[in-house]
Each structure stands twice: as structure tokens, then as C-alpha cells.
Amino acid sequence: MPEIQLLRPGHAPALLAFEQENRAYFAASVPDRGDDYFVRFDERHRALLAEQAAGVCYFHVLVGADDEVLGRVNLLDVAEGAAELGYRIAERATGRGLATRAVRKLCDLAATDYGLTTLRAATTLDNAPSRAVLARSGFTVVGESELCGRPGLSYRRSLTEATAPPTAG
Q1: Is 33 contained in some domain?
Q2: Of all residues in the chain, what percent are helix, strand and coil, respectively (each to 5)?
Q3: N or C: which end of the chain has fewer CB within 10 A?
């Protein structure tokens, strides 16, 4: 069973491999990171770790066998008890419920380890798998949005309400 780990310096090689192997797959649903991201990956990785150390963001990797990175699940722009959830799962690891389990686990960590009370998320209308993960993880639609020029939906999940997300799926 893959494990969620807080991002650390030693994740860099596996994380870079994950991003390179899935670049075209991710670009089909979210904006491409661009060539500069890969050229300056080590510098960017250090910057993410500095943001994490400052408590501004919390970056996590979903690690499988042989320390391979199967996904990323992040809390961004942490402030006043809230954060933005972002995630991506390797193409070869989709369809197994990993995204839903990872998002649910990160919701638990957000409340227990980081003291957050609310998470926000957004996805495009044409990203049905992401919309399903958010719904199965207890997020509710709170409005329409636009993501990189594409129509989308904004979501919210309270981490203090007694209701738990559905367990099916």
C-alpha cells in the first residue's frame, strides 16, 4: 500500500522522474509546467522545502514500492486555518482509488497535524475523475470558477464538521 510522506530533500530524484514520466498525461488536464521547471528542478525543490519549513505550504508525495513516487498531494497557501488542496496521480496508478485514499488521508493530516479547519479545491468541468475524487472525499461545490481559461468548479470541505465523507468508491 502506498504511503503519504511529507516532502523531503531525498525525494527529489523520484519526484523529478514522476513529473517527467507523467508530463504529457498531466498536461491534458492541467497547464504544463514548462521546460524551465525541469531544467531548474533542484532549485524549485529547495524552494518548496523552504516554503514548507515556513509553514506556508505542506507538500506530500505518495510513495510506492522501491520509493517510487506515484503521486503528489499538497496543501497550498496555508493561512487562517485554511489551505488549497492540490493533487496529481501518475497515469499508471490511476483507477485504483489511490487519489481518493490520498486526499482523504491528507484531509485527516490537515486537521490533526496542521490544525486546519477548511480546505478548498478546484477543478475543470472536463476533469470528471478529479470531480469524483473531491466528491468522494467530502468536498462540496461552492461555486463556478475558471482555471487556465477553462470552466471549472470551486469546492470546500470543513474539517471540523462531524460528518465524514462517504466510504464507498
Answers
A1: yes
A2: 40, 30, 30
A3: N
